[in-house]
Write a structure and sequence with these properties.
rod-shaped
């Protein structure tokens, strides 16, 4: 009736959940932060030369 899953399954679940969260965070950084940073760098270089 009771099933022993062992400590390896708990570590695997923690690894999968943290991997999912890190993937979502990296996706958001790639989609939003990097283009905004590039745009502000473009504006800074445009206004500092004139």
């Amino acid at each position: 009736m009771f099933l022993y899953l062992g400590p390896g399954l708990g570590g695997g679940i923690i690894a999968v959940i943290s991997g999912i969260f890190l993937t979502i965070f990296a996706f958001l950084v790639a989609i939003f932060w990097l283009p905004i940073k590039r745009f502000f760098g473009f504006l800074k270089s445009k206004f500092s030369k004139s």
